[in-house]
From TrEMBL:
Keyword Transcription regulation: yes
Protein name per the record: TetR/AcrR family transcriptional regulator
DNA-binding region boundaries: 32-51
Domain HTH tetR-type stretches: 9-69
Keyword annotations of the record: DNA-binding, Transcription, Transcription regulation
Domain of life of the native organism: Bacteria
InterPro entries recorded: Homeodomain-like_sf, HTH-type_TetR-like_transc_reg, HTH_TetR, MT1864/Rv1816-like_C, Tet_transcr_reg_TetR-rel_C_sf
Keyword Transcription regulation: yes
Length: 192
């Protein structure tokens, strides 16, 4: 009988890292707490101290994805870009890049949840939409976007960027063509 080593690091982070890798390589159906425990070298019950069930693992992955993407959009807002058009373009490129490189995670993030999602997941998704909303609000205030309902502009921005990412990930267009579509989309949104 082999003994499993005591995991003295941050097991939650290790499990989430492994879950992201599994999601990326093999899809959502391949995610199992038992398999993640085996890969981490801990008992099959150890993950339950961090994730009560598979859904809580999926929620934590989605939360992590929203926080990562929100951080990228917030970094664009803090950049030295000369105008909001450049910032919108950079935020759109970050969004599409994330969606292309982590398509399965993005799908998980925007999958409808039964009931109310946990507070952490709500906060993380709210952080992303607040960052995009702030950028849109500032662009409207600077006169670079037509004054409209900012919420509708946020949804339009997300829908267009997800659409472009979907075209790239499905192989219907190249990443280079996706980049050109981002330029076209920003040109349609921003006043010339």
């Amino acid at each position: 009988m082999t003994s499993r080593p005591f995991h003295h690091g941050n097991l939650r982070a290790v499990l989430l890292d492994q879950a992201e890798q599994t999601l990326r390589e093999r899809g959502i159906d391949a995610l199992s707490l038992r398999e993640l425990a085996r890969k981490a070298g801990v008992s099959h019950g150890a993950p339950r101290s961090h994730f009560v069930d598979r859904q809580s693992l999926l929620d934590a992955l989605a939360e992590r994805g929203f926080n990562r993407l929100a951080g990228e959009v917030e970094a664009v807002m803090a950049s030295d870009a000369a105008n909001y058009r450049q910032r919108l373009r950079a935020a759109a490129a970050a969004y599409v890049h994330f969606a292309v490189t982590d398509a399965a995670l993005l799908d998980l993030m925007f999958t409808a949840k039964n009931g109310n999602p946990p507070e952490g997941l709500r906060a993380a998704s709210g952080r992303l939409f607040a960052a995009v909303g702030d950028l849109i609000d500032q662009s409207i205030a600077a006169g670079e976007l037509e004054p409209q309902d900012p919420h509708r502009l946020q949804l339009l921005f997300a829908a267009v960027m997800q659409g472009i990412a979907s075209l790239v990930t499905s192989g219907r267009i190249s990443a280079q063509d996706g980049d050109l579509l981002i330029d076209d989309a920003i040109s349609l949104l921003v006043r010339t």
